[in-house]
């Protein structure tokens, strides 16, 4: 990872522009001709990579289907797991001091205020169409770009140094035990809830209710775990179910004093990479992870793309996470409007070092 946005420059190639109908026209060369030019034509996908040894899943990529006029669905854009409005009602302006100490030391406190209330699903979907899981990058017309740890650190002030630990998968039985031991519920209540989730999950609304209950009872450790699990389940670990969080993440909060040792920024980035890889496939209709991270990254690097709403100027609020700078503004551009705009982008349209005045 570099200190600025990563770019990999592609080798020179034939540039094919979109026509008036929004599609890039099929190459004029007759693929079935026996001429020497046809014989020299590289193998690969029309409108896609000539060398398929790296992009081995391109056959299932949404871009290949769009080339042939096959959209994801009638709306074309993805369904994106944004919980910003829910968090507005669930995150209190102030936590009890007994909880605030743990939350502050966890390294996750910035997530309480950084979520966009609404996500521009058309903008996000247009960029997802350019993501390739084999390279973990967006393939732009001028090269490849990716979200880096530096971006996560500046946008959200999440720690990017520390332990990188992926919680192991847990069974439904273990999910019940974890809820009893670390969320302070009875065995029967835990079993009933996990059974209703049809898997090793907890409902976000249930966690919020537990937080409220334990806070009223001054059970601070239980309240803090429920709160933090609800918080990460609504942000960096958001699930495509839109209502659940995986029970395995509760393992991260067994020791509330040790939460500060994790590289939460790395976990957020890896989770988003994984969901971007899923969403770049034609069969996928939803995007999990933290879409605020992706949209705010777009706003920082691509000032001419989409509709950016600004809450304040960076120079006036250098101590706040940069994601708090941005707000949702209703746009009029749909996915097929944005596709040709992204086609035409050049390096001159990119702010390559947006965070130089922020790192201090």
| CA-based gyration radius | 23 Å
Number of distinct beta strands: 10
Largest β-sheet summary: 4 strands, antiparallel
**Could you state the order of secondary-structure elements as H and E?**
EHHEHHHEEEHHHEHHEHEHEEH
Estimate the mean pLDDT confidence. Answer: 87
Give the strand line-up of the largest sheet: 1-5-4-3
Instruction: Enumerate how many helices there are, as a single number.
Output: 13
Span between termini: 19 Å
Beta-strand content bin: 5-15%
Spans with pLDDT under 50 lasting ≥5 residues? 9-16, 26-42
Question: What would the keywords be for this entry?
Answer:
360 residues, alpha+beta, 13 helices, 36% helix, Aminotransferase-like plant mobile domain-containing protein, MAIN-like
Architecture overview:
A hairpin with a 4-residue loop joins strand 3 (131-132) and strand 4. The chain is built from 13 helices and 10 strands. It has helices at residues 36-40, 62-67, 84-90, 97-106, 121-128, 149-156, 172-183, 187-197, 204-216, 220-233, 264-279, 291-301, 335-343; strands at residues 6-8, 79-80, 131-132, 137-140, 143-146, 201-203, 244-246, 286-287, 308-310, 326-328. The longest helix has 16 residues, at 264-279. Helix content is 36%, strand content 8%. By secondary structure, it is α+β, with helices and mostly antiparallel strands. It starts with 5 loop residues before the first strand and ends in a 17-residue tail after the last helix.
